[in-house]
Amino acid sequence: MMSAANEAHAEIKSGARWGALWLFFGLWVACYSSMFVTGALLEPIKLAFHLTDEQLGRLNTFYITSFVIMSPIAGLLGDKVRRRPLLWIGLALQCLATIASGTAGGFLSLCLWRAVSGVGEAIFFGVSPSWIADLFAPKRRGLAFGIIVTSGQFAALASYAGGAWLSSHEGWGAAYIGAGIPVGLLSLGLFLIKEPTPGASDNSVPGQALHTNTLREAFALFRNPGFFAYIFGYTFRLVSVGGLFFWGAQYLSRHYNVSNISAVSFVGLSYVITGVPAMLVAGFVAGHFSVRIRGAYVSWLILGDLFAAFMVIGFLDIARNINQAELFFLAEVFFAGLSWGVITPILYEIVPVGLRNFASSIAMAAQNLGTALIASEVIGFLSDLYGIRTAFYVIPVSYFIGIAFWIVLFFYQRRQPRLQSDFDQPINAEVELAR
What we know:
Elements: H1 4-11, H2 14-40, H3 42-49, H4 53-78, H5 83-101, H6 107-133, H7 138-149, H8 151-170, H9 172-187, H10 215-219, H11 225-256, H12 260-292, H13 296-317, H14 322-340, H15 343-350, H16 356-386, H17 388-391, H18 394-415, H19 427-434
Helix pairs in contact: 2-6, 2-7, 2-8, 2-9, 4-6, 4-16, 5-6, 5-9, 6-16, 7-12, 8-9, 8-12, 11-12, 11-15, 11-16, 11-18, 12-14, 13-14, 13-18
């Protein structure tokens, strides 16, 4: 007898699942572009409003603060109600706020519109991963998320190259408007796809409905050492990745005296040239290893982040000219990309199906808060005091701290039973783990 969840999963044919994945890919590209475009506009915004680097970092802090506040709320709602209406609300807020950012007449109004955009982003990125996970069985999930996370690389190219070009020709406001419109257009595609049942792609006890977790069980995740290690590993990793992405073009422009548009365009292009192939390879290869080797995803992540950290050190200490610096930058993007595709599948190995939205939202809130406080504010503050090169040492240090937490998670996973969310354990077992 087939369970209700698997019956719902069977109703979504293979072609429809892949069609839905590509729609979400487009939405993630559009949403990331509206998020990333600020990084391409730092120099013109700084000149327009006469700002310091610390103040520029605060622009990102407004966005991330609202993201952090909204993320747990969105996650809890996503585990309780239908996800499609939530996604529409999030995308509408993001579209309108991004367009409005382009019409801001002052720095404060720009910060406030970025905060509204953060609310929309929190809803979308907090809810959409569980929808994607429900479309694919565990063996294919790594590849599916490997494809999804490449959206950030294409968004980096679109927002940085496109944003820099629009800014230089039409002003920085036009770049925000250009980034907001695709979000609204692509959101209409949600009318065309079927929402899967939560847990539909996972094995479950025949005839047994998916357990709906209570608030008590949700917050019990914070007593789970594996979840604790994941949160901190993810946060410090994003400090490194986000810091390099947010300030990388500024470093190249100032340290090697190249134009802002050249530096920004290179940074955007690098994420497609080396990041996309790395993510696809990781999603496919690591996904197959994970079925047979306990902790394969975390092991892969440790190696990728370790090499990425050394590439940043080479970027700062070994490179003697712009060409060498660009090679180290490309290498860092490649090694960081190798581990991007396994981030979300790792989380789904350690949390119950019924808590995926909440767990994803908490993880995103934590890493965005770390990015705001360290990658934006601290790097900006240190840059004003000691120069951007000295401030950049925050990036490899954060990588190494994150790796320490990934090692803790690896040993934790090796001692724990597999969750039903990825293997053949009954749902009741995962509820007990949450408790």
